[in-house]
From TrEMBL:
It is found in: Cell membrane. Belongs to the major facilitator superfamily. EmrB family. The chain crosses the membrane at residues 12-31, 51-71, 78-98, 138-159, 165-187, 199-219, 231-250, 262-288, 300-319, 331-351, 357-375, 478-500. It is a multi-pass membrane protein. Keywords: Cell membrane, Membrane, Transmembrane, Transmembrane helix, Transport. The keyword Transferase does not apply. The keyword Transport applies. This is DHA2 family efflux MFS transporter permease subunit. Residues 13-504 form the Major facilitator superfamily (MFS) profile domain. It holds the Pfam family MFS_1.
Amino acid sequence: MRERWGASYRFLVTFAVMIGTIATILSATIVNVALPQVMGAFGIGQDHAQLIATAFLAAVTSTMLLNGWLVDSFGCRLTYAAAIILFVLGSIISGAAPNEGVLILGRVLQGAAAGMIQPLGMQIIFQVFPAERRGAAMGLYAVGVVLAPALGPAVGGVIVDGAGWRAVFFLGVPFALAGLALGLVFLPGPSHGGQRRRFDGPGFLLLVLALLALLTGLSSGQREGWESNRVMVELGLALCAAVGFVLWELRTETPMLNPRLFTVRAFACSAAVGLVYGAALFGSTYLVPLFAQTVQGYTATRAGLLLMPAGLAMVLVFPIGGRLADRFPPWMPIGAGLLLFGTSSLLMHGIGTDTPYWTLAIWMLIGRIGFGFAMPSMNAGALRALPPKWVGQGSGAVNFARQFGGAMGVNLLSIILERRTQFHVQALNDTQTGGPATRALLDQVERLLAQDGVAEPLRQAAAENFLSQMLLSQASMLAFRDSFLAVALICAAALVPVAIMRRR
């Protein structure tokens, strides 16, 4: 291929795979600003809406570990083309979905394609660039990859306000088709030398079963109660499948995810921090647009723009984080990044209905700067600790931990948000016992309704409904505060494995 296309081939193939990667990454974050509109369109609550985000992340987690076998068996070109076609199909299904079930199916297909595509970029760069130029190529590739989620929510907000929420799912299709055309021309085909690696079918099925049962059980618990038989069966099935997956991976000769990697202390600590970072990053990206639209009344465009400064900051900080990874022990940038992200979440714990726009944007920016500092050291520290024969699987395992953390973070924060909202609604309702302040408010509302010509029999019910909406809005704000506090606490807990990494 290099002989056919000349010296520019390296950049052509990198650009081809980057276009497809950007399309899939856009779909991961762009949907967050559309969730309130989707909830209104289908009449669903947060327990169903969060599955639209977590289904994508769970599918990415499952298929990411398939990438190595797919490329070894079918080559980069065919793997990339199949993933792009699957992504386009998932986008069409999501955009045309008649109900939330079909929408979640479309998101699963999108996520499965994203998991197959995202590791390809690094593989291609290592194949076509000499060692002395890989760093610059990875830097260029990373800027495009990081820029996509930075701009995604803002672009998604504009689309939602201008063309409706369904159009959001079609945004990545033109990029994906362009990437498909370039990939068919420039990506290398399968190598015919060597023995094809055996597919770990039982491991893959056990992993998918564990993830599906776990996420379904967490979602069912919100609707049917945590002690219901259905929830117990689903969570029990998830536990059994997870244990079975670990036992199988220990005994098979071609594991998808080698559990022995986690016997290396530095690697295990880096993976644990990656899990927390995934939960904190994806969880906060889920919470902020939802808060801005449901509590502060922002439009989708304004809520999306709220995330843009933080995303652009990550683009600028990543190269600095790479230099820090080369000059300092991993625990130092990782610990500093966790402190910054935790500080950001602690500041978000003070949000209110009157918090200024730029205050929220700056609080988010602090956390993303911390993530940019920590991410390169987290990856480098994990892989440096492994023997060379495990480096390939270690890279996939670190990405797996981060993506799994993202799926769990969105799911668990959604549960915390809903349960704390119910708690605060009950607590605030208990304070409204017909006291003079409550009675005065109801009388004032009834007088205003009378001035507007509302019939007398309807005034009392309308005034009580107004009070109920006030209490619900206040309870929702307090629940968001509790959710951000939970993010700060898990960042603080992640300092424990960082401290362990410091030990020689």
